[in-house]
Specification:
The chain is of the alpha/beta class. The chain is 47% helix and 16% strand. It has a domain of 169 residues: Rossmann fold. Strands 3-2-1-4-5-6-7 form a 7-stranded parallel sheet, with helices on both faces. Helix 5 links the parallel strand 5 and strand 6. The radius of gyration is 17 Å and the shape is globular. It binds NADPH dihydro-nicotinamide-adenine-dinucleotide phosphate (NDP). The site of NADPH dihydro-nicotinamide-adenine-dinucleotide phosphate (NDP) has 30 residues, from helix 1 and helix 4.
């Protein structure tokens, strides 16, 4: 798909993979809606994009809150006149053993990683259907393909993302000419570990940096761009992208 002039929503655009992808989308000529809760960061990113000749607006959005998501999508559609691309990327990974019973953190992961992604899909889909084309890219994970001890709930949420993504592709690909892609990264250098409250797991995750060369956010942004820029009749359904030296 030619991205120049296309209108894209990126959730989780305030840091990490989302911010890197938003920059590449804007550099390719897309008009980008930058969505997340940390609006100061979004404003800074939007300024950076505009300074380099791109187009972007900051959209304060909590993906857990359906009204916030609907309002954010409406703001983007009003600003640029439609919607072509959705990068459902917001997520978090506060991992711990199940027996630690951090039920609040389990619920938070389900709310953001699964229900949040469904909220933004629900708000965006009618606009893509109206256009008769579009592309939805969902950030799943290696944890959406395999299960790891300590990551039971996170893996459950990312397996749900993978299943939802494939089901969506089956329903809207042929019927509405909408492509649907699941991105499944391994270890990427982002802020994702910052929210791990279990010190042991946080140290373990940080320690992985000494064992392998983490992917950069740009590496994953490039894979998203690959899927988006494929010819219109090509739906890159899944992209499983790992550090070369990731041994699991
Ligand atoms: P970051 O922590 O850097 O980014 C997470 C993004 O999600 C932030 O922009 C954050 O914005 C946003 N977010 C979190 N909660 C909400 C919410 N309630 N509403 C709106 N936005 C929210 O980590 P990553 O870039 O790594 O994470 C992006 C995605 O990549 C996630 O889905 C993650 O699970 C996935 N992933 C990451 C891997 C890695 O190794 N880093 C590997 C595989 C998948 P804000 O706080 O401002 O709202």
């Amino acid at each position: 798909m030619e991205l120049n002039g296309k209108i894209a929503l990126v959730t989780g655009a305030s840091s990490g993979i989302g911010a890197a992808t938003a920059l590449k989308l804007a550099a390719a000529g897309a008009k980008v809606g930058l969505a997340a809760r940390r609006v100061v960061r979004l404003d800074k990113l939007a300024d950076q994009i505009r300074t380099t000749g791109g187009e972007a607006i900051a959209i304060e959005m909590d993906v857990v809150d359906r009204a916030s998501v609907e309002a954010g999508v409406a703001k983007l559609v009003q600003a640029y006149g439609g919607l072509d691309i959705v990068f459902n990327n917001a997520g978090l990974m506060p991992i711990s053993d199940v027996e630690a019973l951090k039920v609040g953190e389990w619920h938070r992961m389900v709310d953001v990683n699964v229900k949040g992604l469904m909220n933004s899909t629900a708000a965006a889909l009618p606009h893509l259907i109206e256009r008769g084309s579009g592309h939805i890219v969902n950030t799943s994970s290696i944890a959406g393909r395999k299960v790891f001890a300590g990551l039971a709930v996170y893996c459950a949420t990312k397996h749900a993302v993978s299943a939802f993504t494939e089901g969506l592709r089956l329903e809207v690909g042929k019927k509405h000419n909408i492509r649907v892609t699941s991105i499944q990264p391994g270890a990427v250098d982002t802020e994702l570990f910052n929210h791990i409250s279990d010190e042991g797991y946080r140290d373990q995750m940080e320690g992985l940096r000494d064992q392998m060369s983490f992917l950069s956010c740009d590496n994953i942004a490039d894979t998203v761009m690959f899927a988006l820029q494929a010819p219109a009749h090509v739906n890159v359904a899944e992209l499983f992208v790992l550090p070369t030296d990731q041994p699991w």
